[in-house]
Amino acid sequence: MAIARSLIANPQILLLDEPFSALDIKNRTELQNVLLDLFYSDKIDVTFILVTHDIREAVYLSNRLYVMKNNPGDIYKCLDIHFGSGRRNRETKFSSQYIGLTKQVEDMFHELD
Predict the structure, then answer these.
(1) Which residue, 65, 71, 105, 106, is the most exposed by fewest CB within 10 angstroms?
(2) Cα–Cα distance for residue pair 38/45, rounded to 1 Å
(3) Are 49 and 16 in contact (CB under 8 A)?
(4) Strand partners, 65
(5) Strands 13-17, 75-80: parallel, antiparallel or unpaired by DSSP?
(6) pLDDT per residue over 14-31, tens digit each?
(7) Is the backbone of residue 10 left (phi > 0), alpha (psi -120 to 50) or beta?
(8) What stretches of 13-95 show up as alpha helix (H) in DSSP?
(9) Residue (of 62, 10, 5, 64) closest to 36 by Cα position
(10) 79 has which bridge partners?
C-alpha cells in the first residue's frame, strides 16, 4: 500500500528499504511479482532502488546490482543482470542463470570478509 501511495506523487526515484523483510515467503513472492509488474509497466516511469540483504531477492528483482562495502557509500562491485520482463515466473528462480548469478554475488560477499 505504501508503494501505491508513493507512486501517486509521480516520483523519478523510489527507494525501497527492505520492503518485504517482515513477510512470509508466499506474500513476499507475490509482492515481488507485483513490484516487477510495476517495474515493467508502460504507465510508470520511475527508477526503483531496492535495499536488501537477501541475495536471492536482489538477483530476482534487479537489473543492476551493487554490492556495498562496509563503509557507507562505497561500492565494492556492480553486476548487470539480464533477465528482462520474462523473469516473473517460477522457472526463473530455478534457472542456471539465476543460480549462477546468486552464487556470483555470494562469492563477492565472501571476498569482503
Answers:
(1) 71
(2) 9
(3) yes
(4) 79
(5) unpaired
(6) 999 999 999 999 999 999
(7) left
(8) 25-39, 55-61
(9) 62
(10) 65
Closest CA to 109 of 76, 60, 82: 76
| Set of cell numbers at residue 28 | 513476499
> Do 81 and 36 touch, CB atoms closer than 8 A?
no
Query: What is the distance between the terminal CA atoms of the chain, rounded to a whole angstrom?
Result: 37
Range of the domain at 76: 2-112
Per-residue pLDDT of the chain (113 residues), as tens digits, is: 688 889 899 999 999 999 999 999 999 999 999 999 888 889 999 999 999 999 999 999 999 999 998 877 799 999 999 887 778 777 888 899 999 999 999 999 889 87
What is the tally of structural domains in the chain? 1
Supply 74's cell numbers: 562505497
Enter the C-alpha cell of residue 13.
526515484
92: domain CATH number?
3.40.50.300
